Amino acid sequence: MVDLTNESELTPQLEAVGEGRLEADVEIERFADQGRCIAHIDGRVVFVRFALPGEKVRIRIDEPHNRKDRFWTAEVTKVYEASSYRVDPSWPLAGPLAWGGGVGGADLTHVSLDGQLVWKRTSIEEQLRRIGKVDDPHVPVLRVPQDEEAGVGGLHWRTRAEFIADDLGYVSMRRRESHDRVRVKDMPLASKQVLEVAEHLDLFNLRFEPGDHIRITAPEPRDGQTSDVESGNWALLVNHELKEGREYVRERVELADGKACEYSVLASGFWQMHRMAPQVLVRDVLKLAQDFALKTEKLSDDDVIWDLYSGSGLFTVPLASRIVPHGQVLAIEGSQQAVSSAVKNAERNNVENITEIAGDVLQSLRHLKKNLSELAAPKLVVLDPPRAGAGKKVVEQIAQAQTPVVIYVSCDPASLARDIAVFREKGYELSFIHAHDIYPMTHHVETVVVLSRTGVNKYGEVSFC
């Protein structure tokens, strides 16, 4: 795939090639966002897919290229001088169009696992400097230990896989930035359990109606749970309607104390996608709560915790049972279906000290003193907002409550950095930060931070195994 012709001098001039396409030879300068890198042509910024800093490459400009935007987007077609982090695409179908790829879902498939960690660390640190105004941030990005032990090479982690039926009704994926659909007969990012279900259904040979949306949900078996698809703990959904399996699937999160939390989750709903992510993140949040709250005597086991954007109760249940067993957890979530699941999950785990609110987080917090005054002064806030972040007004509500410690779980470095900037304006400092690579082969990354009013620790001083 990689053409190393050692052309040392590149002049970034546009050339017209067949069918009006524009190409140029450029040198890649640095990482950017969304799995892209930056080059320049005649002073114009070009965001390039499937590139790496320091490389000399040929790129094809995306159409339309007569637009007057301040930047263009492009894709690598040939590599002259490769980065040490470059590898042959682990999933060629998700690689560059010029190399027979083009489907989305793995925009870092050309990058080694070490290189992916560097990319994600750089991205988070850049957003913290530029948007969060954090001086000299250092953000470790951790691989999921079970991924390393299994030697899956960044593959086989998704417990949810989605497809679309092509014009003939076969399972396919959309080609990037187009309406073209490419038939697929495999999904390398899918977990082994998802692939077992797909084989059981003969999914890749089935015919659906063209344009159908197809989803498989198959939780990771744990602690003696059978991996046999005959157990039925999986779902096939077509256009969001259950066709086979279960409407609700069982998820299990094993904790560091040797016990576990059991969950029932809507198969069509949101749940952390990596097979080990729920366990990794719950253990992380609990340890941070212990280190930054309980150990500093700011939080007692009979105090109040807020769990904002609480979903189906992933963090709510262990926080209530492990951190404040004699206190209360207030959980606020916008999805009524998720709240219904969360209530059932609390009952399933025999946890009674949870108050669930189904509603907008901001509006719920604004009315809290009037409706639930006894829960209006939390000693710890845990929040896991959607990609857009919590936003200034939610952060202000947390600050007004005089919360000593905040644990923030984020799937987007830019929105995280914006919210951190607001927290810092309100008197909080960044006490701890690291990230988890729960989205290998993609530019996505999950970051966990602690913000505190009194500076319990400087970030990076707490070690995690």
TrEMBL record:
> Which biological process annotations from GO are given for this protein?
methylation
Residues engaged in binding S-adenosyl-L-methionine = Q272, Y309, E333, D384
PROSITE patterns with a match to the protein in the record = SAM_MT_RNA_M5U, TRAM, TRMA_1
CDD domains hit by this protein: AdoMet_MTases
List the keywords (alphabetical).
Methyltransferase, S-adenosyl-L-methionine, Transferase
Instruction: Indicate the residues that form the catalytic site.
Output: C411, C411 (nucleophile)
E.C. number, please? Answer: 2.1.1.-
Q: Which GO terms describe its molecular function?
A: methyltransferase activity
Looking at the record, the residues that make up the TRAM domain are 16-78
Protein family (similarity comment): Belongs to the class I-like SAM-binding methyltransferase superfamily. RNA M5U methyltransferase family.
Could you tell me what this protein is called?
Class I SAM-dependent RNA methyltransferase
Originating organism: Alloscardovia venturai
